[in-house]
Amino acid sequence: MELVHEARVTNFYLRHHATARYKYTTSQATQHQDPNFKKALIEAYGCKSPTVESQLFCMGLGKFVSSKLVCAAHLFKYAWRMDLARVLGFQNINDPANGLMLIKPIEEAFDNGYLCIIWEGARGAGRSDGQYRMCWLGDAELLMHDMKRYPWKSSAEKLPQELQEELRGLMNEDGRPLRFTDLDGKVLSFNTDARPYRRCLVFQARYAFNQALAEGRITQQQLAEISPHLVS
After folding, report:
1. Are the C-beta atoms of 18 and 96 separated by less than 8 Å?
2. 140 vs 13 pLDDT, higher one
3. Domain ranges (residues) in the chain
4. What angle is formed at CA 107 by the lines to CA 75 and CA 52, rounded to 5 degrees?
5. In the beta sheet, which residues pair with residue 177?
6. For the residues of the chain, what is the DSSP string, one character each?
7. Are 6 and 197 in contact, with CB atoms under 8 Å apart?
8. pLDDT of residue 6 exceeding 90
9. Mind listing the pLDDT tens digit for each residue in 183-228?
10. In degrees rounded to 5, what are phi and psi of residue 231?
11. CB within 8 A of 206, min separation 6: which ones?
12. What pLDDT is recorded for position 232?
């Protein structure tokens, strides 16, 4: 029942609302961190380090980092919570399936439509039967620690110096400073069987891809190629 309901709700609102009323921008990002929401995500997704108390798991990086770097990110924004049931068909904005644990730069990239997450799996499969693959829609050379060059208004520059140093220390597989584009094609890592709602990710991805097309960051052909994935 959930799959049928999810698809009907999502596809209707994607066609009529996702690129109009609901815009993924810094101004719509969650401005407060609800400790109960973060605790729920940590428990649901198994993000607590078994060995280092001061670390949490970032599902985008697939590794444990300083807990102060990791945010509880709402997929459908907290600012839109009054519309949640009508738009996406569930009631609780703080449902763990409406969130991911991500480091601040990745959260901001998602919140501003420069990064989205595509579910890949067989038609009719459940949420846990596919992969959640990240797509980067920005400058290929943008370094994750280079916050002054972010194309969105960032609060990451306010991070304490030691956390900024930790970001500078993140490396890609070639041993070079991590770029956002290094996340492109990378799948999210999960430590439990819990998975996010696909409808929330599709909702954001439709906005992100259409906005990227409007700003000349992708081509019409690229949008056409990804479109089959932009349904729940």
Report:
1. no
2. 140
3. 2-229
4. 110
5. 171
6. -HHHHHHHHHHHHHHHTTTTT---SGGGS--S--HHHHHHHHHHHT-B-SS-TTEEEETTTTEEEEGGGEEEEESS-GGGGGGHHHHHS-S-TT-GGGEEEEEHHHHHHHHTTSEEEEEE--TT--GGGSEEEEEE-S-TT-BTT-GGG-SS--SGGGS-HHHHHHHHT-B-TTSSB-BGGGGTTPBP--SSS----HHHHHHHHHHHHHHHHHTTSS-HHHHHHHGGGS--
7. yes
8. no
9. 999 999 999 999 999 999 999 999 999 999 999 999 999 988 888 8
10. -130, 150
11. 14, 18, 19, 230
12. 65
Instruction: Please tell me the distance from the alpha carbon of residue 58 to that of residue 68, in angstroms, as a whole number.
Output: 11
pTM over 0.85? The answer is yes
Residue 130: its pLDDT value, please? Answer: 93
Distance CA 140, CA 170 (A): 17
